[in-house]
Amino acid sequence: MNKRKLGLHELYGQDPEMADDLVFGRRCHPLSRRGFLTGLAKMSAVLGATPVFADLMPAGLIPATLVNETKPFRIEGKDPGLIVLNDRPLNAETPPHLLDDDVTPAKRLFVRNNGHPPVDPDRRTWKLRIEGEACTNPQSFTLGQLARKFETVTYQLVLECGGNGRAEFHPPASGNQWTLGAVGCPRWTGVRLADVLKACGVSEKAVYVGYYGADTHLSGKPGKDTISRGVPIAKAMRPESLIAWSLNGEDLPLHNGYPLRLVFGGWPGSTSGKWLKKIVIRDRVHDGAKMGGTAYRLPCHPIAPGETVPESDMCIIEEMPVKSLITAPRTATLHPFDKPLTVRGHAWTGSGKVDRMAISIDFGQTWRQIRISEPVNRHAWQHWEVQLQFPQRGYYEIWARATDDAGHAQPMVVPGWNPKGYLNNACHRIGVRIG
Ligand SMILES: Nc1nc2c(c(=O)[nH]1)N[C@H]1C(S)=C(S)[C@@H](COP(=O)(O)O)O[C@H]1N2
Ligand SMILES: [Mo]
């Protein structure tokens, strides 16, 4: 069953949980009954006994006793409503109605892992190393040293995967089929990357910073990086570019990088290295894993859908484009005609800020301009809310469109096809029945 082909009218009158599953494709996904099992200890705990021939068990095989498990799939510390797109590595997105909070709770922040997180990392002994060709005074820091030597700062920053919205591209792009929920905006606490880099000596040759994390490659090969990306030195030096150890005042969740990570608000999430072990100050564009080829790069010039692009014509993604989400009501809501409907959500952009927000209930024929809040700081998402009255009973779609301060508006249709399906910032739309 393809969730995108499912008419919304088919969902009304269903048990809301069932409707939710259909809309978000949970029941349609082949992984829906899989267990997320890493390591013998965890598997034993789930099964209630140690599998005796565990080392003969094919990787990725779901223990038969769990195959008919009907309990929802759970990720430790995460909301059971997250949609698991892949369990090896773990990738899970947050449906829009669970992104309604102004500040995204840790349990509702999506997870995008390229490999396996480190096993039981310890924040007390964790060390971060700063070095590289353009670093004149290489040093290592514990978390305690970072906190003592540098000013602690907190910013609310949007983290969005470059591939968010990939599921809508045609021809399809390979990779996790993110729909809308590979985004969140929690409050991050840590130190400024700039302060740490300056203490370690940034030479005039500095062009880029790259990161290395402690996660392990799916192949199990030691020393093989899962991902090692970075940002140009100018972005690294911005005051909101962070080395963070805390999310909403708590330790980072394991899957979101515990105990230490980078956060570059407004840039592809892939720049925000998790389980951060090392930063290199480079005298050239960083050339770590997933910096080349089609990874996190776009054709430098527009192309036709499906066209192949020579590597030399691919450019690294920098700022993320303007985008918005409708977080209330959830799609497929039934609402009484005589009561105004509260519609709300967020809008954000990787550069500048969002300065116009518009809503349509007539498939884009007319747009109503609505108020949008100021961001609490640069790269925080902004909020909007409106009460809608409908002309008569019936089915409507609510469309939302944000425009940034440079005049870029969200497109109504999926924009610029590219080989890996990045940067889909098409307008979000929901269906409601007013009855
Ligand atoms: N070490 C490491 N850092 C990483 C990744 C990873 O797999 N390993 N994934 C990146 C990608 S592609 C994204 S979108 C964000 C996701 O952050 P989150 O899982 O905390 O939401 O982390 C980035 N940092
Ligand atoms: Mo990502």
Write the layout of secondary structure elements.
Elements: H1 16-24, H2 39-47, H3 64-67, E1 83-87, E2 90-93, E3 111-112, E4 127-131, E5 139-142, H4 143-149, E6 152-156, E7 159-160, E8 183-184, E9 187-192, H5 193-199, E10 208-213, E11 230-232, H6 233-236, E12 242-247, E13 250-251, E14 261-263, E15 276-282, E16 297-299, E17 314-316, E18 323-328, E19 333-335, E20 341-348, E21 354-360, E22 368-370, E23 382-388, E24 394-404, E25 428-434
Parallel strand pairs: 4-15, 19-25
Antiparallel strand pairs: 1-2, 2-3, 4-5, 6-9, 7-8, 9-12, 10-11, 10-15, 12-13, 12-14, 16-17, 18-20, 20-23, 21-22, 21-24, 24-25
The ligand Nc1nc2c(c(=O)[nH]1)N[C@H]1C(S)=C(S)[C@@H](COP(=O)(O)O)O[C@H]1N2 is lined by residues 109-115, 159, 161, 213, 215, 226-227, 256-257, 269-270, 272-275.
Protein name: Sulfite oxidase
GO molecular function: heme binding; molybdenum ion binding; molybdopterin cofactor binding; sulfite oxidase activity
Cofactor: Mo-molybdopterin
Structure summarized in a few sentences:
It is built from 6 helices and 25 strands. It has 435 residues and is mainly beta. A hairpin with a 2-residue loop joins strand 12 and strand 13 (250-251).
